[in-house]
Amino acid sequence: MGRRDKKLYWELGNPPGTGMMLKTILITSLLGWARCQESQNMTPEEKTVIRDQIVEMFDHAYGSYMKYAYPADELMPLSCRGRVRGLEPNRGDIDDSLGKFSLTLIDTLDTLVVLNKLDDFEDAVRKTVREVRLDNDVVVSVFETNIRVLGGLLGAHVMADHLRQRGERMQWYEDELLHMAKELGHRLLPAFNTTSGLPYPRVNLRYGVLNPLSRTGTESDTCTACAGTMILEFAALSRLSGEAVFEEHARKALDVLWEKRQRGSDLVGTVINIHNGDWVRRDSGVGAGIDSYYEYLMKAYILLGDNVYLERFNIHYSAIMKYISQPPLLLNVHMHNPTVSVRSWMDSLLAFFPGLQVLRGDLKPAIETHEMLYQVTKQHKFLPEAFTTEFRVHWGQHPLRPEFAESTYYLYKATGDPYYLRVGQSIVEKLNAYARVPCGFAAVQDVRTGTHEDRMDSFFLAEMFKYLYLLFSEKSQLPFDIDDYIFTTEAHLLPVSLSTTQPPCQGNNTEAAPISLEEDLFTYSCPSTQTLFPNNPSFAKTIRDSYKYLTGVGRAFHPLPVREIELPLHDSGMEPVEFLKSMGISLTPLNEAMAGETGSQKEHKGVYRVKLVAEVSQTPEEEEVVPHIVQLISPPFLGRTVLTAGPAKFGMDLTKQEHGVKGSIVKASPYTACGPIDNAAEVKGHIALALRGDCMFAGKARRLQEAGAIGVIFIDHREGSNSEETPLFQMVGDGDSTTDISLPLVFLFSREGAVLTAALEEHHNVDVLLLPKERQLGHDKPEKPLAMNIKFRLAEDGELEEGAARGPTLEFVLEKGEVLVEEEEEEEELRGEQQSQQQYCTKASENESTEPCSAAVLSPLDSSQSPNSNSGPDTNP
Ligand code: DMJ
């Protein structure tokens, strides 16, 4: 072939001294050893030890719930008592999961079967049947009640039925759990009484939605996942009970979401109006607010065998891979303008997505994103609720979410790579080390400080222990055939045999999706939980290896930062010039004579170590308004509501605050803050809201600072103003010195301000975070392109110093003697690297066992087995 891909390295700085080199070799060796450990095979004995450890942890968690909390919905693991709604301070929307129906018990039932605790399962089912009531006068979340309670009852019924049919246990069981599920289904149905068919977000278990006693029914919006995560449970309920109504409603809600997708991008937004179907929030990602909508399209196809769901999923998936997935990152974009990313952080809920990609058969991006997530857990112990695209903590809470364990399980099933067992082991160890408390496991309030929160959510028992236990179990060790079931989003087990159970009523008006997709190997394949590429773990390793040091954790000491870029290089050697030209850099082609180079063009191929010489000129910067944000972080907003704000030229410079400024908001009185502050006691220690107008911003800020506020959000008094239509501006002082004002100050237009004041009215306690919209590592503003002229040629001896003396230059000099490194040599180098890695492994295992390193380190060059090698073209931009 005339054309070859070659690599060009940018090397900056000077060669290391010998001491540094030794240090580098030592650290690299240790890291190589650690990496080997991660890829090392796990013996069956070791797996058993870890599985036993997981069972012990489960006993501690479940035992504590039963001892200290049952019949309450949840355990408060720090106070060693149950959380009873109404008796504890209201936590906002999180409490909508609590329906006084022993939530944790029901959510845990089928976990008991997975963990082979069949006596405990039988006891727990008896308790559920005898003691749980579903008709409480409580307003609950339709979504949470569906996935946790209805799903929990159905999963437990399916398991109870299976055990009963085996004839050993549960002989007394007469479908009581299914009857309870049916009762609960009927209690949720009033939520679907909307003109659109999208469900209300909340329902009163006793009084429904529109009943005067229901205390709900005023909501106009719901999240996409909330409306789109009903089909598995509702269809299973219909097919098991013979009542079509459930499946019909869930299906209708999915039809509406599909109808309302943005036709240009094929993406959906995060929040939708349940009455008219208009999008309320148009940001689109795969995490919070949308996540399980996509999951349920894929799984509805698996469970129900209906192609419509798969076709919809495939169309969305293509859009996700085009706009949202930038491996290893998963971004959030605007559904109407999807090439623009709308925020610079990711939420931890998206950690389920690699697992879904495994079901789709798309392993490469799954491995990449999972590896990124693993690196984040290495850095912060757990996945923070939100972390920036530079992997810094954006929001440090970790409520023991299971999504990362879930994806780890799927990746292990698909690859057979023992690396994923090591990842699972690290999850187990961290839970024990940092979340275990005497009465259970406590959520982490902030991964940076390791402080705990008095909560252990039911999904910890429903999901985390299932995925961890299954990761370390063989199929034969389970009391049922795991491949006969599909996991709901709450990890409840539903039998895929339901696909052959006809829906009780065939009539539906589901719109068949037009197919306009790039098809690939997996577009119509039946998802499988079997190893997709049987025991060839090396391809996963080659994919992972590029992301090993993504977050900087465990990075070898590099005195010479080397940035590698891939350049297509023709024999003529001209492509790099074109490539750089395309980046706006103009080059003078290499003058061989000048460089004293006498070899043929062929000799210029290969790996180059070069220095770049360039004269740089820069145009003076215009003054720019740095957009800021007000992010609502307390429940129910949980960081999802982000309001664009303008900065101030005075007061605290938020671009210099690493974590922004956080606080709860209080309205100033008077609201304009133009006179003495009447409610100073309330304002103290809070972020004040003050209306624009009547007096200067600086005067308002001074008065509120004196009253003890920790920040001020000014709200525009001009009705209808909003950040989409009105350019942002910087608030200025009053002409006098403003150095006395040290508060952070931001400005919201009235439409954004109204969101904030409405939130305050509804929820009383609203915590917000003030910070610049885009904060890049080490920069507060996106860098402007520089105008550059670059001369590109080989250096003469001693010329580097001369060049440096001429002022601002970049040096790009081809070093002689390092020109020719053919691919064969590269392979040789890599083989050498593997051999030395193997040596580290052997050394490490000398004292324990003689088992060599796994195949994972043996053939990183073998990319022919890549799961994508047969798939369609990469659709990433
Ligand atoms: C679970 O309740 C479900 O997995 C849901 O889909 C979203 N996440 C929580 C656990 O994090």
UniProtKB/TrEMBL annotation:
This is alpha-1,2-Mannosidase. The keyword Cell inner membrane does not apply. GO terms for biological process: carbohydrate metabolic process; endoplasmic reticulum mannose trimming; response to unfolded protein. Residues 834-844, 861-877 have a biased composition (Polar residues). Its cofactor is Ca(2+). Residues 821-877 are annotated as: Disordered. CDD domains: PA_EDEM3_like.
